[in-house]
Amino acid sequence: MAPRIALLLLLLSPFALAAQSDTARVRYFESYPGTTAVVKADTPATPAAVGEVTLHVDPKVEELMEHYTEHRMARQGFRVQIFLGDRRTAEETKRAFLLKNPDTPAYLSWLAPNWRLRVGDCRTRLEAERLLRDLRATHPGSYIVPDEIEMPVIVSGR
């Protein structure tokens, strides 16, 4: 049994040495049928060498990504509810709040039979606690509620 293994290793050793050669190779990777992306990748012997990647993207994908970034996305977060009652008082409270806090968004919603005024777009409970602490003096009955919040729009400098 041992002579067979030694003979097998002797026969396969040239292949193992060829696989470990130091020469750089160029390989081409093609994507799935129907797409146009072809990537040329260099696998150099030295790790400091730089390769080149060319991507050909379908214009429909670029259009979809632009459309996606133009819309505000909702996610679960927290707001502080500062009012629950009739419509006229809710609108007046919203106006007064926005005059004092122009950087904090305010949202009116109707849940029969009352109108509610919720403020802020807090991603975490801790942010909502800070906002609640700041609003306690002017709105003593306010409390934190889980709600869908709007994510801020990030304008990239393309």
Q: What is the number of independent domains?
A: 2
Profile the largest sheet: 4 strands, antiparallel
Shape category: elongated
Query: How many angstroms separate the termini?
Result: 68 Å
Look up the CATH topology of the largest domain: Alpha-Beta Plaits
Description:
This protein is of the alpha+beta class and 158 residues long. It folds into two domains: 22-57, no CATH class; 74-150, 2-Layer Sandwich (Alpha-Beta Plaits), CATH 3.30.70. It has helices at residues 2-19, 59-70, 87-100, 125-135, and strands at residues 25-30, 38-43, 74-85, 106-111, 114-122, 143-150. The N and C termini lie far apart (68 Å).
Quickly list its features.
Alpha-Beta Plaits; 158 residues; two-stranded antiparallel sheet; alpha+beta
List the helices and strands and how they pair.
Elements (H helix, E strand, L loop, with lengths): L1 H18 L5 E6 L7 E6 L15 H12 L3 E12 L1 H14 L5 E6 L2 E9 L2 H11 L7 E8 L8
Antiparallel strand pairs: 1-2, 3-5, 3-6, 4-5
